[in-house]
Amino acid sequence: MTETESIAYDVVVLGAGPVGENVADRTRAAGLTTAVVESELVGGECSYWACMPSKALLRPVIAQADARRLPGLAQDVQGLLDTPAVLARRDDYTSHWKDDGQVAWLNGIGADLYRGHGRLAGPRTVTVTAPDGTVTTLTARHAVAVATGTRAQLPDLPGLADVKPWTSREATSAKAAPARLIVVGGGVVATEMATAWQALGSQVTLLVRGKGLLNRMEPFAGELVAGALTEAGVDVRTGTSAASVTREHGTVVVETGTGERLEADEILFATGRVPHTDDIGLDTVGLKPGSWLDVDDSLRVTGTDWLYAVGDVNHRALLTHQGKYQARIAGAAIADRAAGGTLLQEPWGAHAATADHHAVPQVVFTDPEAAAVGLSLAEAEQAGHRVRAVDVEFSSVAGAGLYADGYTGRARMVVDLEEEILRGVTFVGPGVGELIHSATVAVAGRVPVDRLWHAVPSYPTLSEVWLRLLEAYRDN
User: Fold this and answer.
1) Separation of CA 243 from chain center
2) Where does FAD bind (predicted)?
3) Is there a binding annotation on residue 190?
4) 3-state class of 382 per DSSP?
């Protein structure tokens, strides 16, 4: 192992995923010298094993499902998807797991990339061990930003490692569809991958420990998605889990908690995420290795004046777009603190990630899509708000019928009765992913319900669901 001399920067970023890239972009835009450390591929989980490959797999599935609902087209799309072509397009969207383009972008903003394993080695100090064993020490004049993300959490089942189960990485990068696939979990990864692989030729069995799917959303979201998965051929089993898993002569054998025996070619565990902080030197700065990092709204780690935790590692909102939002806030805060400026940390200020608390949007790319922003009815009530839920079916909207015959979907807005603003909105139905930003603007902007009445939706579009929701609120 060879150690080089110490190199000083204004900012050092641990992790070159979308979040780390955006921190670097903002600090470089402010004129701060910035080093970025990455142990895998520049672009991170989202680019190669999560958002991009999963949506590349799902887009043909959703397009075919939409086409099958349209007379004049339905008869031509009843066959199976061309799975090799879908996988080839997925490979294109991951740049075939090469990061040349992302490295070029990082170079283009003037950040310096250090490849290797980065660890804190005391305040404002990071050591980088390169693949050849060379160790470089980086010191930060102003800030170190941890943007190392999360990794899949596997259950504590004896012998599970010998089974070689899929996590989200294997599910999004697989080279062929297994004939039989068991998916364990009921959240976003589980439902999206069940949707994708069932359509790509696998017989999928979905094991859900709880009573339903997508339990972080309104109950009807999980109900509609579960019904559609069942209709597509997925064997959805709620109230059950994998009690033991073995691989016998290449076949995965699962004993469920109810004593059933299931067999498959592969098994995917989509049972949560843990912070990627176990070996980044947190102990050298008085923090617990493997822990989530608590931060204030400027994303600075509690108890420090130099360490930031941005994206999934702070456990505020495990979503790429929300992490990038935090990165923009953190980058501005780092830059203004470095310049000795006054931070605008009041809610919705330039240096406060307020949306993390009130207006986090998410789209689940199943068929139907499920999209939500803000609080569910139950969450709003638990937070002590006096609210009312207003529900309408998308069948009441002319644009839904034009979108697809037999369009099925539902919308809900949660209205704060004291402030007359929206606390949350949920849409479930084909194509609603492109509709959720209007709800995000309404929730984040705290737009009064009376003013929303004057935001006229175009006819005949899905967005007319807003008019139906507002009518239902006024009339009852």
Assistant:
1) 28
2) 55, 118, 312
3) yes
4) helix
Question: 368-475: same fold as 6-41+98-149+276-355?
Answer: no
pLDDT, mean of residues 407-426: 98
Q: Give dist(CA 255, CA 180) in Å, integer.
A: 16
User: Which two three-digit tokens encode residue 231?
Assistant: 């209709």
Asked whether the predicted pLDDT for residue 1 surpasses 60, the reply is no
Taking the CA atoms of 233, 47, 297 and 293 in sequence, report the sign of the dihedral they define.
Answer: positive
Q: Is 188 assigned to a binding site?
A: yes
Q: Please determine, for residue 142, whether its predicted confidence score (pLDDT) is greater than 70.
A: yes
For residue range 431-462, what is the model confidence (pLDDT) as tens digits?
A: 999 999 999 999 999 999 999 999 999 999 99
189 marked as binding residue: yes
Q: Would you call 39 helix, strand, or coil by DSSP?
A: coil
Q: Domain 153-271 has what CATH class? A: alpha beta
191 is in an annotated binding site: yes
Write down the pLDDT at residue 258. Answer: 87
Q: Is 110 annotated as a binding residue?
A: no
Partners of residue 105 on adjacent β-strands: none
Q: What percent of the chain has pLDDT over 90?
A: 96
Largest CA distance in the chain: 74
Listed by start position, the domains of the chain span 6-41+98-149+276-355, 153-271, 368-475
Q: What is the pLDDT of residues 297-310, one digit of tens each?
A: 999 999 999 999 99
- Helix H, strand E, coil C: the string for 132-188 is CCCEEEEEEEEEEEECCCEEECCCCCCCHHHHCCECHHHHHHCCCCCCEEEEECCCH
294 labelled as ligand-binding? no
Is the N-terminal amide bond of 368 cis, ω within 30° of 0?
yes
DSSP β-ladder status, 251-256 and 203-208: unpaired
Describe the strand order of the beta sheet including 261-264 as a list of residue ranges: 242-248, 251-256, 261-264
Whole-number Å distance between alpha carbons of 6 and 11: 14
- The tens digit of pLDDT for each residue in 335-363 reads 999 999 999 999 999 999 999 999 999 99
What are the tokens at 250?
């290449």
55 labeled binding residue: yes
Query: 368-475: what CATH class?
Result: alpha beta
Give the relative orientation of helices 188-199 and 51-67 as an angle to the nearest 10 degrees.
50
The number of CA neighbours under 13 Å toward the Cβ of 261 is 5
187 carries a ligand binding annotation: yes
The CATH-assigned architecture of domain 6-41+98-149+276-355 is 3-Layer(bba) Sandwich (3.50)
Tokens encoding 415: 């209205």
Residue 185, annotated as binding a ligand:
yes
* Cα 368 to Cα 371: distance, rounded to the nearest angstrom: 10
Would you say 283 is a known binding-site residue?
A: no
**Distance between CA 155 and CA 212 in Å, rounded?**
20
Residue 3: what pLDDT?
A: 65
